[in-house]
Amino acid sequence: MAVSAQLVKELRERTGAGMMDCKKALEETNGDMEKAIDLLRERGIAKAAKKAGRIAAEGLAATAVSGNVAAVVEVNCETDFVAKNAEFQKLVQDIAEHVVSQRPASVEEALEQPFKGSGDTLSQVLKEKVATIGENITLRRLAVLEKTDDGVFGEYLHMGGKIGVLTVLEGTKDQALAKDIAMHTAAANPRYATRDDVSADELEREREVLKNQALAEGKPANIVEKMVEGRLAKFFEEYCLVEQPFVKDPDKKVSALLKEAGATLKSFVRYQVGEGIEKKQEDFAAEVMAQVNKK
């Protein structure tokens, strides 16, 4: 039967489920609101929707490689307990393989693609997992990288996937070197691959900060510029991967390590699970008082 937009709207408000899910449920139950709610609950859709607003700051990163294409993803859940669950871990790896196969340009595109050749989209699969696992689960971000035939990927997962790194080297087939660079990236957390990747605006802003620091220290104006250039070199050394001291041999820079192998760093991606997500701080005492005040 045909259902009204108002009925769909009411069901959405009562369950939090998507518009199309609500419409289908009402059609299948001949417009019976309570039966439609039960149907959505049975399918786990209403349950998934209610959890969608909860903060998912735990989770795992995973990588996958297929030929000259590689992918890294971050999938979030609410608790570390679930992150250690075998079902969740398999889901994250499956998503990485989905991304390397389908090569989506964005999370939104990935969610609408058929998941690993099935009839369901990745979005639908995640909703089902939310219902079975019992926590909000989200694909937060992804990256797809490519290499040439004379290049190599480096994969590294730290602490079982709390940090996931993917590097791309060109001019070498040395898998061990690529992994070493990925391990270094996980530890050193560079912002850029080379100094050429630093934007002109950021470079100018950094110069201005360093100049004002030197002037505030009372340094003569005629030597401030030299001081700025010296301190700028330290900035590059701290934030540009190839200029950082190699973590396994601090006496050698990453650039020297690459040069010895005749390799160049094309790109890298480093995901640290939960970075930038503000976790909700639960105040148990305030929660109890709020409940008391309601009575």
Describe the overall structure.
With 295 residues, the chain is α+β, with helices and mostly antiparallel strands. It has 13 helices and eight strands. The chain has helices at residues 5-15, 19-28, 33-42, 45-51, 80-83, 86-102, 107-112, 122-133, 175-188, 200-216, 221-239, 254-260, 284-294, and strands at residues 58-66, 69-77, 138-146, 151-158, 163-170, 245-246, 249-253, 264-272. A three-stranded antiparallel beta sheet has the order 1-2-3. It has a three-stranded antiparallel beta sheet with strand order 4-5-8. Strands 6-7 form a two-stranded antiparallel ribbon. Strand 6 (245-246) and strand 7 form a beta hairpin. Helix 1 (5-15) crosses helix 2 (19-28), helix 2 (19-28) packs across helix 3 and helix 4 (45-51) crosses helix 8.
Summed up:
The protein is an alpha+beta fold and 295 residues long. It is built from 13 helices and eight strands. A three-stranded antiparallel sheet has the order 1-2-3. A three-stranded antiparallel sheet has the order 4-5-8. Strands 6-7 form a two-stranded antiparallel ribbon.
